Amino acid sequence: MMLLRFLLALNLLSSWALGQLTENDVHNRRATKPNVVFILTDGQDKQMNSLQYMQTVQDELVGKGTSFDRHYCTFALCCPSRVNLLTGKMAPNTRVTDLKLPFGGYAKFISQHLNDKGIAPWMQKAGYKTYYTGKLRNDHSQKNWNKPRPAGLDGENLLVGPATVAPRANIGGGGKEGDAEDARYDDNGLSALSQGEGNAPIPAEKHKHLFPNVNVSRTDNFNPDRPSGASWIRNMPKQSAENVQYSDLYYRRCLQALQAVDDLVKDTIQRLK
Prior knowledge:
Blueprint: H1 15-18, H2 23-32, H3 55-62, H4 78-87, H5 91-94, H6 105-111, H7 119-125, E1 131-134, E2 155-159, E3 169-171, E4 177-179, E5 185-186, E6 189-190, H8 241-272
Parallel strand pairs: 1-2
Antiparallel strand pairs: 2-3, 3-4, 5-6
Helix pairs in contact: 3-8
């Protein structure tokens, strides 16, 4: 489930970011450079077919674009994988291999002199106006979000800790703290998908009714009566009925929460036309 499934093309720009550009900015940039939008989802699965439930992504990106079926996640853990993806370096070279110190997190990223080595600084140096919204790094908090500030950004709307697991605060482009408790979702997209580690994602209210009969696929190796598989998997006990029920709920919540991403993709495409 930790496969970083899905590149759309950096959430340097999203609905919020696009709204910060003046008409003159947009006109001038269209005349010289294409817009670049990179929307990153973290931990989205490949094997459980969540992309099939994202209609805009299917119609506009899969149907009209290119899918990289051999673009593999090089480190199946949130923070290292983000660093790999946004810098073009693998974990042995970034030395970011965990979610927080001493081996990971924002402070580790900074200590490895990676702040000015990544897609945002590169795009800025190429003449782009860059924006980032949402979660950037693990352990990126209200205490260290500007020590130093993320490099290469003309503006940002950062979701920082503890907001990344229990939405409470975000940092706007002016460095001002905001209250995100009641703003997990807005009309144009999403602010946060999860509340606490291990808990099911929280979908937008308008999506909570979707997929009522969808469950985790009952393949031959799903919760077998007899031990199967290899290594530690063979030693796992059979799941209880309650655990299976929660797995189905969790899966539905994932699909429902991803509808906000699908809406964001649709809104972004419409704004760019």
